[in-house]
Amino acid sequence: MISCRAAFTNGAPTASYAHPFGANLFLSANVDDVRRALTAGVAAATILPSKAPELPSEQLRIAFDGDAVIFGDDSERVSHHDGIEAFHKNEIERVNEPLAVGPFRSFLEALHRIQDAFPIENSPIRTALVTARSAPAHKRVILTLRNWGVRLDEALFLGGRSKGPFLEAFGADIFFDDSMLNIESARQHVASGHVPHGVHNPAPRN
């Protein structure tokens, strides 16, 4: 028997109920509520007006950025503060170190558990990593996913190319990224959720 659960708050924030409900993902148009959910340790994103895929798949197709979404933003901070050359140097020096955990790791693991219940050729869910990283910075990503024992069906290392056309080609039902610049591009092609986390998204001052 399927139970339907709901919370009606008359406009009050709802993020505090995500954990009691056992939610793996919190989506809202209210960025403050999304930040509260992320602070509480729940994967969360701000949903923005976006284009829906023209040829929807029978599978649920979910795409993620890497740094500051699936992974922590340690490498992103190096790039942000010291530039792309420093980023590549950091990734080469730390190639054998798994990346830190990001806010969407638990959601990715939940999807992985569902996928594991089906033969790979008949999975109702397909996942993709769509990242600006390129060789040799891809090596830590692969090492980290193997270390976690988590499956991603596709991994696209774009080397700085615009993500939107790749997301459309993948047929993403939704894409999650911490960069508003990437989200603005992506939402012209697919439904997109902004993850207000990491170095690109400092907490607003009160």
The counted number of beta strands is: 7
What is the average of the pLDDT values?
Answer: 90
End-to-end separation: 45 Å
Which structural class fits the helix and strand makeup? alpha/beta
Strand order of the largest sheet: 1-2-7-6-3-4-5
Just name the CATH architecture of the domain at 51-194. Answer: 3-Layer(aba) Sandwich
- Write down the CATH topology of the domain at 51-194: Rossmann fold
The CATH class of the domain at 51-194 turns out to be: Alpha Beta
Q: Could you spell the SSE succession in H and E letters?
A: EHEEHHHEHEHEHE
**Helical element count?**
7
Helical fraction: 25-40%
Strand content: 15-25%
Q: Quick one: overall form?
A: globular
Q: Enumerate the spans where pLDDT stays under 50 for 5 or more consecutive residues.
A: none
Indicate the topology.
Elements: E1 25-28, H1 31-39, E2 43-48, E3 60-64, H2 74-82, H3 84-93, H4 105-116, E4 125-131, H5 138-148, E5 154-157, H6 164-170, E6 174-177, H7 180-186, E7 192-194
Helix pairs in contact: 2-3
Model description:
The protein has 206 residues and is of the alpha/beta class. The chain has a domain at 51-194: HAD superfamily/HAD-like (Rossmann fold, 3-Layer(aba) Sandwich). Helix content is 32%, strand content 16%. The chain contains 7 helices and 7 strands. The chain has a 7-stranded mixed β-sheet, sandwiched between helices. Helix 2 (74-82) runs antiparallel to helix 3. The protein is globular.
